User: Which sequence fits this backbone?
């Protein structure tokens, strides 16, 4: 079996926001909607303080709370672990946005554009009315994964089959791959480094790991 | 003085000798000059009291805006907002508490002759005697950026030959007062 997962190496992330911008470009999300976000956090108090940049988004949980509360079965989980939203089934109740412990879901009720009411040419060309009034979130760039796999490419290794945030990362802080494959890039990183998952105590089984030190 | 020796050894170990002239004049930090005294004298010359302007206001480049050529792009404004300080002035959280300033409060940053207003952004990772205004948003008067509402250090720097060096330049630093705006 395959279980797609993402890794963020907290030692390498510099908070540049390139992944956030790349995601917005690739997925044509409206202003304020950031499927891939990077938090600017401080730990400690002056003068003993450290700064950490923490990429967040949909964790593609093994046991997704968003899916359990969805009354219309719009949110589902694929066999490879990717949590999906069917915009045609979503009724926009936003239960999922409330249930998600990672604040990963967005709902946009009206069309919004970068510079006011009128869309830019690129925004007009890529506007998708199906995304209004429904829940949206990071898809792990599932279309890229599926199209890449169909061509025999390997997600996480071949850029054409890899989520754009990972491709765009200037610091190689983001990685993507199959954690069920012990030889994969992500399995190797997890074997060599200490890692954690966000809100592990909630039992959601996130498909997103954070590296913070060598073993 | 051993400063620079480690760098020299690593370079020579790798058969790199083309930097030897530069290694000879290598210094880890420039010679210290009494900048506080320069500023205290300048404030006194203008008729003020240096004690009334206890903060050093600094500026820094923004990683997202870089040189500012992209300042009109909404997407850059949006993602830069995820990094602390793009929406106001960064103040040490403990010092702000002493001054009765909460995160998001409007504060006045003032010199003897000028003042600007900004939203307070409280952070731990800054010295208690230092303030930081990222970038130069108020002189980027492009149609989009002029609405950011974030002042810059440039507005507060006094025109003074006493603070000007031999190249006609000066340090990006200003002694200022800070208080919660009424």
Assistant:
């Amino acid at each position: 079996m395959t279980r797609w997962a993402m890794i963020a190496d907290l030692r390498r992330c510099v908070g540049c926001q390139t992944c956030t911008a790349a995601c917005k470009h690739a997925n044509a999300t409206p202003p304020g909607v950031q499927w891939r976000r990077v938090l600017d956090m401080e730990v400690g108090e002056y003068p003993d303080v450290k700064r950490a940049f923490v990429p967040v988004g949909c964790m593609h949980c093994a046991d997704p709370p968003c899916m359990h509360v969805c009354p219309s079965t719009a949110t589902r989980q694929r066999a490879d672990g990717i949590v999906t939203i069917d915009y045609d089934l979503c009724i926009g109740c936003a239960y999922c946005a409330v249930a998600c412990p990672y604040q990963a879901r967005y709902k946009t009720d009206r069309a919004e554009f970068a510079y006011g009411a009128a869309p830019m040419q690129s925004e007009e060309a890529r506007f998708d009315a199906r995304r209004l009034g429904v829940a949206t979130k990071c898809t792990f760039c599932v279309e890229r994964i599926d199209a890449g796999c169909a061509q025999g490419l390997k997600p996480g290794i071949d850029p054409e089959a890899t989520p754009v945030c990972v491709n765009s990362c200037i610091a190689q802080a983001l990685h993507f791959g199959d954690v069920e494959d012990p030889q994969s890039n992500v399995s190797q990183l997890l074997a060599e480094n200490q890692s954690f998952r966000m809100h592990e105590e909630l039992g959601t089984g996130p498909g997103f790991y954070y590296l913070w030190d060598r073993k | 003085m051993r400063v620079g020796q480690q760098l020299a050894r690593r370079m020579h170990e790798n058969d790199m000798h083309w930097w030897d002239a530069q290694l000879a004049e290598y210094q880890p930090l420039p010679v210290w000059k009494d900048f506080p005294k320069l500023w205290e004298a300048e404030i006194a010359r203008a008729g003020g009291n240096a004690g009334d302007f206890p903060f050093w206001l600094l500026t820094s480049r923004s990683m997202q805006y870089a040189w500012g050529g992209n300042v009109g792009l909404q997407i850059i404004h949006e993602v830069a907002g995820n990094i602390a300080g793009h929406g106001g002035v960064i103040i040490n959280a403990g010092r702000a508490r002493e001054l009765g300033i909460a995160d998001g409060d409007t504060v006045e940053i003032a010199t003897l002759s000028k003042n600007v207003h900004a939203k307070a952004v409280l952070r731990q990772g800054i010295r208690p005697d230092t303030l930081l205004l990222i970038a130069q948003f108020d002189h980027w008067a492009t149609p989009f950026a002029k609405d950011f509402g974030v002042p810059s250090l440039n507005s507060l720097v006094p025109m003074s030959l006493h603070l000007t060096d031999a190249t006609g330049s000066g340090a990006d630093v200003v002694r200022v007062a800070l208080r919660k705006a009424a």
Q: What stands out?
A: The interface with chain B takes residues 14-17, 20-21, 24-25, 31-32, 34, 37-40, 42, 44-46, 49, 51, 114-115 of chain A (CB under 8 Å). Chain A has a mean pLDDT of 97. Residues 18-27 of chain A form the longest helix (10 residues).
